[in-house]
Amino acid sequence: MLNTEAIRILVLAVLFAPVALAALVGLAGRSGYRSARRLASLGALVHLGLTAALAVPAVYVLIDRSESEEAYGHRAANSFQPIFVPGDPSGELGSYETAWNLFPVAKAPADLPPPAIQFFLGIDGLNIWLVLLTSILTYVAVLVSHGSIRERAAGYYAWLFLLQAAILGAFLSFDIVLFYIFFELTLIPAFFLIGCWGTGGGRRDAARKFFLYTLLGSLFTLVGIFGIVLTNPTPVSQTNPDKTHYTVVLDAKGQPHYPKAGPVTFSIPKLMRNVAVWNHFHEIAIRGAELKKVAAAKGLEKARSGREPIAIPLAEDDVAKAEREWQTAKADREHYKSLQYWLFFALIAGFVVKVPLVPFHTWLPAAYSEAPPAVALLFSGVLAKLGTLGLVRIVLPLCPDMAVQQGLPVFGFLGALGIVYAAFCAFAQRDLKLFAAYSSVSHLGLLVLGTFTLTAEGLTGAALHMVNHGLTAGAMFALVGFLAERYRTTDMNQFGGLIGRFPIYAFWMFVICLASVGLPGLNNFIGEMLILSALFSPEATAPVGYGLGIAAASGIFLSAWYTMTMLRKVFFGPLLLPPTPTDVEPRDVRPHEWVAFGLPALLCLALGIFPQPVIQSMKSDVNIIVRQTDDARDRANDAKSAAK
Amino acid sequence: MNPLSSQALFDQASLSIRFLLPELTLVGSACALFLLAAFRSSRRFSGCLALGAIFAAAGVAFGIPEPSFLAADRFTAGIDPTGVAVFVRWLALGAGVIYALLGFSDSSRQTAPEYFGCLLVVLAGLSMVARVNDLLSLFLALEMISIPTYVLLYLPTKSKAGQEAALKYFLLSLLSSGVLLFGFSYLYGLTGAINLPLVAETLSKASQVGPVSPLALVAIVLVIAGLGFRLAAVPFHFYAPDVYEGAPNGVVAQLAFIPKVAGLVALARIFGLLTPDAPFDAARTLIPLTLWVIAAVTMTFGNLLALIQDNLKRLFAYSGIAHAGYMLIGFLVATEAGAGMQSGFDAVLVYLVAYGLMTVGIFCVLGYLTHTGRTIETVDDLAGLGRTNPVAAGMMGLFFLSLIGMPLTAGFNGKLLLFFGAFETPPTTPLKDLYRILTLIAALNSAIAAVYYLKAMGVMFLRAPLQPAAPAKGYAAFLAAFLCAVGTLGLGVYPKPLVDAARKAAPIPATKSPTVLVVSK
Asked: A561 and A485, same structural domain?
């Protein structure tokens, strides 16, 4: 059997090792860029090993969980179930909780855990692959920086590792404020990486623009987080505020007892359960009041037909009381709903900026074109996934009703718009970095669109696409870095016929480009097909029709068009090379670049052929989200039929 | 019988003195410093003496047990040593150490004894603001902060700007003291008492049986105006930019922090927010709305004007105004009695500490950098600091990040508690959803503030140096900055001790039930 305790420590090690590495490289690598890069690549490789050591047992357990759920036909759990939680007070796989409090924000009734921000980390099917992806791409980023970063290299690698630590922290967090903390912390290393080691003249402005734009978005998210936390406290018993109370209890007279609001919680799994429960209670309260109204009306009729006139005013009182109760219950629900509406948009603001979703992408061209290629690689490969993971980890589970109501019509539409718009932008770019950036935005639009279908296929596709897109977009920037390092330029017009000059480079570029356009057998194909199938399934897209699906499909076609155009321009035709900045004649792919290009390319192939382990390990977590949103959809349908 | 020789009065006075021993130590040392100035005027000597006095006061506070104090004594005693008094005393002593260290590089040889003497009196005054229990001594305590500040501003009257700053502060401060005293006189006239809890209780009782007296409103508005000057809240902020610009670093560091603490604590005590009794029920009046408007305008105005500043000290003046706006949110939330919230004035205390660490820390770094004669006037003078003085720049960067409110700094935790408290205030209060809107305004303001802080950070770290590396010398100021940096980072990573202490200092008033929340069934 697995040693759970050891794996919990491994989770902490995976998070904190980059911090230690940053300190090590920052201090010990000062003697020159050679020693810094040697230390950094060794450290990143070791960390990759650590992550793999964590991923293997985690994936094993997750697949096991999904399979046993399938075999026994269990209904999906009602909230995320992170495994290997450090600080878990209980046994083997654990209680999906932690006892490590960072600081209590308020007081609590005696027996309940105090409402504290917790150091709540964990693994589930949604984040384990992203964690692995982060470690892989950081290693690739370090390798790609080998030749291009020579000035203050120690500081550069130190910030790179800190960026990795912040991203890993956000992926692993199951406390909503802890997630926000790590989410914000990514800004600091990113600011310095763009601002200090950027390649263009506008790097300072680009760094500031990136920082401020994302900060503005995430401050809205913070307000949204407060709102969600405060409107979804733990339900407790009316009579005994020390006891949680998740179901409606009937008392001796058969009267239903509703819970009241207890202490607030910051744990995402608990919040998810509270959201479901409060939504449920609001419905039940209305139903109960309706029944009472009917009963009271009957009582009044009976009293009127009866012989005792004295009973009539009493029965009238009952009717009025039942009517009042019904009105209050309805007003309560309306208030809750209207607040959720605003909170949904506040909550999602930070994530759509981070992804970025068109039209919130205006920070992106500057940041990507000024950043060193290795940093752009991490930005599009993993940093963007913070936004998409935020959607599935926070927005969908905690605002399910609004996600059903507003998701596809608003954000699905923006995703579809982004697919097409960014595709045309990519076609028009002359700079390879911007080409890769817009192509990445186009694919991310598809990912967001898939997320908001809120079906198992769509969400599986989106979750898979997070990994796939990370690999292809990351590798694309690594490949762009190849040219940037050798020629100090990534202007497409200055290159031509590279296939003759750099045949091995051309080979890797073709592989990644084909993966990016979704060639069957390579990774993107699977995710895109899943998302498309969800978009064309009537249950998911009833409110918006097939328009979004058509936009998504055209996006895949467009991606082939602009990618092939780029390949034709740069790799075919007569040889065209810009002047080399040094006298040394640039060489084709060198050993460390073999690893940097080969590793993601091989993984693209592997995921294209065997996506099953990934899909299987995500399955139970995707089902958890789908259960939450399906309930919301049922509520919406009920309300619609009731209105009729 | 001669009332001055009454035994009871004597007993009460001696009891009060026993509650003020550390403050007396500070004031006594200040007197000694002023006298010694006639014989020996040395920066190191005076500074060490002042540091010694602060540690002695801390020793007295820690070592000599105070007489017992019952909750009922609050309505008669001259001193109330419970609750926030302890918190503010330690805050004053802690800040005192930093200021004294900063003073080593900030004072000049001729005026050093006066500089440190005034500092000690200011610290004693700050501690007394949280401790004295009637309107008159509260006013005296506040003046104990103001009057030495005039002296501190006058001491280096070499430049025209310095003279302007001193005069401006002097006149406006006098005016605000007059307004405050006027308000106090109304409070006394209405309630017939000068004892703070008694004033608050009489007002709240009167407001329970009938409409709130318009004179009480006038009194409270006057008090808010008088103390608003100390907070530098809009529209009482006009002095701040000019005074900051003309005054030396060490004095600005004091001005930026100590009057804010004193003003907020005094306001909270007059409103009765810091005792477990029912506070003055202002919720039915226009006072919360007035405070809402002041808070919103203060932060927005401060941040917007800070955007266009080139001069570093003016920038921090406006940034200080903006932060006063954030603190007022917490104060406003704390006035919502009985609304069923889990936080009150404690969030303000946490924010004050965080704000003090980061703002004073910045002036300590500036003091360290300018010690050797290098001038840092504008933001551009910071250019390339990351290359020339990496450690100082690193600390400065940390303070900037804390001011922006980035996680893992004390500033983040302060903002988190303030914003959370504001959002938590249920819409059943008379201001309804305005609190939530205020949270949103505050969040937007944080984003605006990030623009100018980040600009300064960009200049420091991303630009090439304009000046050669300054030889490092002001070790005392460096140590002060280092202590602030450790505090900022330490309380950012693990804020629990501070939060607990603040909660102990400002308990949630009894009428605020701890469990009722927004959605209740």
From this structure: yes
Residues A348 and A415 in one domain: no
- Pair A179, A149 in one domain: yes
Helices (H), B20-83: 21-36, 43-63
Distance CA A127, CA A111 (A): 32
Which residues of chain A from 192 to 211 reach within 8 Å of chain B, CB to CB? 192, 195-196, 203-204, 207-208, 211
B412/A188 Cβ within 8 A: no
From the centroid of its chain, how far is CA B508? 21
Question: How does pLDDT run across A62-118, given as a tens digit for each residue?
Answer: 998 888 888 887 777 888 989 888 887 776 667 788 888 887 776 655 556 667 888
Supply B53's token pair: 């006095």
**What are the start-end ranges of the H helices in A393-455?**
396-398, 400-406, 413-428, 432-451
**Residue A637 located in a structural domain:** no
Confidence at residue A111, expressed as pLDDT on a 0 to 100 scale: 57
Report which of A232, A284, A287 is spatially closest to residue A399, judged by C-alpha positions.
Answer: A232
On whether any CB of chain B is under 8 Å from the CB of A104, the answer is yes
Q: Tell me how close the Cα of B517 comes to any Cα of chain A, in angstroms.
A: 6
For residue A215, the chain B residues in CB contact (below 8 A) are 404, 446-447, 450
- The pLDDT > 70 percentage for chain A reads 96
The residue-averaged pLDDT of A16-45 equals 90
Please, what is the Cα angle at B361 between B332 and B173, to 5 degrees? 55
The string of pLDDT tens digits covering residues B278-319 is: 566 665 677 888 899 999 999 999 999 999 999 999 999 999
| Cβ partners under 8 Å of residue A58, min gap 6 | A7, A83, A84, A123, A128
Mean pLDDT of A133-152: 90
Same domain, yes or no, for A342 and A194? no
Whether residues A181 and B463 touch (CB distance < 8 A) is answered with no
- How does pLDDT run across A180-239, given as a tens digit for each residue? 999 999 999 999 999 999 887 888 999 999 999 999 999 999 999 999 998 898 888 877
The two structure tokens encoding residue B275: 């005792």
Please choose, from the candidates A330, A368, A525, the residue with its C-alpha nearest in 3D space to the C-alpha of residue A446.
A525
| Residue B381 Cα, gap to closest chain A Cα (Å) | 17
Same domain, residue pair A494 and A418: yes
- How far lies B455's CA from each of A204, A212, B437, in Å? 9, 10, 28
**Full domain range(s) for residue A305:** 207-370
CA-wise closest residue to B45 among B124, B148, B115, B122: B115
Domain ranges of chain B: 282-521
- Nearest beta carbon to residue B515 from set A101, A105, A241: A241
A447 and A332 in one domain?
A: no
Number of domains in chain A: 3
- Contact list in A for residue B516 (CB cut-off 8 A) is 261
Q: Which residues of B touch A (CB under 8 A)?
A: 342-343, 401, 404, 406-408, 412-413, 416-417, 419-420, 423-424, 436, 439-440, 443-444, 446-447, 450-451, 454-455, 457-458, 461-463, 494-496, 499, 508, 514-521
Q: What distance in Å separates residue A263's CA from the closest CA in chain B?
A: 7
The reply to whether A93 and A188 lie within a common domain is yes
CB contact under 8 A, B458 and A203: no
ipTM score of complex: 0.92
Q: Among A326, A345, A370, give the residue marking a domain's end.
A: A370
| Within-domain flag for A642 | no
Quick check: is A481 in a domain? yes
